[in-house]
Write a structure and sequence with these properties.
alpha+beta; paralog of FGE (formylglycine-generating enzyme); 6-stranded antiparallel sheet; 4-stranded mixed sheet; 5 helices; 12% strand; globular
Length: 335
């Protein structure tokens, strides 16, 4: 048998080598008409996309600022300036207005001497004081001076009278309200609204060391941070005590610095009316209390604290035990 030629043998060998190399590559490539494998369907139910979070509610509009106001006094060219006092941080003391100064004779005279009534007018609903046994200002001064020699009863009745005349709700401050208003945001540990140093008292108060034994016109010293004058010194101020009894706060022109501390208090004793010759002694004036005065509070409307509350109490019955009335005629007088 003849042997193949060398060129033919080489061609056969090359062809076989080519076929050997191409076989694995062809097997690795998928067929042109094949499809990629499909993911098996999920057996879990279709879930809706989570809802978008609700838009936050718009913030409530800020409460309108509470403004000071002036309370006119009937039949007098005079008004009491009322300053707004914010609520306490713990909410135990509600917002109120309080008079910037102690109530002066310009306001109290109208009430005490019935200057808002014609001479022949019938009695109104609020009781009024009797005529005082002594001049109640004791000659210290009248216009611009704090009304003094007043009892807790008489100043409470003044508030009732002013409520009836104005339609606003006036009363005495509570002891807690008075201390909160006096402190005006100062540290609770401070004895004075200006701090701890009694050497600064002459800038803010009339007291024993600088008053020369007499009260002074109101608002002549520096006020506290909330615009209240004479919260320390000048005259003591009637409040409704936290023990439910009347007391006075602030100290007066006769007192040393400890009696002017914010927490200090002085309650009436028999010496405040000792020389009154009447039997029983007056419940309207203090014959020996020329240091007892007051300031007033106007309540805020609970529904709208930017506005004063309206007086919702009906006028008090005509209870006038202190009114000066002529005594009944005796048989001898009738003759």
């Amino acid at each position: 048998m003849p042997r193949p030629s060398v060129p033919a043998a080489c061609s056969t060998l090359v062809l076989g080598f080519v076929l050997l190399l191409s076989a694995p590559r062809a097997a690795a490539q998928p067929a042109a008409n094949s499809h990629p494998p499909q993911k098996p369907p999920s057996s879990s139910p279709t879930q809706a996309a989570p809802a978008a979070p609700a838009a936050p509610a718009p913030p409530a509009p800020p409460a309108p600022p509470r403004q000071p106001f002036r309370q006119d006094i009937p039949s007098a060219a005079f008004a009491i300036e009322m300053k707004p006092i914010p609520a306490s941080a713990d909410g135990s003391i509600k917002p109120v207005w309080i008079s910037a100064t102690e109530i002066t004779w310009e306001a109290y005279d109208v009430y005490a001497y019935r200057l808002d009534e014609p001479d022949d007018a019938p009695y109104d609903a609020a009781s009024r004081p009797t005529k005082p046994y002594l001049p109640p200002d004791r000659g210290f001064g009248h216009e611009g001076y704090a009304a003094i020699s007043t009892t807790h009863k008489s100043v409470t009745k003044f508030c009732e009278w002013l409520s009836a005349k104005s339609g606003k709700k006036y009363r005495l401050p509570t002891e807690d309200e008075w201390e909160h208003a006096c402190r005006a945001g100062a540290a609770a540990s401070s004895p004075f609204f200006f701090g701890d140093d009694p050497a600064r008292l002459p800038d803010f108060a009339w007291f024993k060391a600088n008053a020369d034994g007499t009260p002074h016109p109101v608002a002549k010293k520096q006020p506290n941070a909330w615009g209240l004058f004479d919260m320390h010194g000048n005259v003591r101020e009637w409040v409704n005590g936290r023990d439910g009894k009347p007391t006075t706060k602030g100290g007066c022109y006769l007192d040393d610095p400890p009696a002017l501390h914010i927490s200090a208090r002085a309650s009436q004793d028999r010496t405040w009316n000792q020389t009154d010759p009447q039997i029983p002694k007056s419940t309207w004036w203090l014959s020996d209390g020329p240091f007892a005065g007051f300031r007033i509070v106007c309540e805020a409307d609970p529904a709208d604290p930017a506005k004063p509350a309206r007086s919702d109490a009906p006028p008090a019955p005509a209870d006038r035990p202190g009114d000066a009335k002529p005594p009944p005629a005796s048989p001898k007088d009738a003759k």
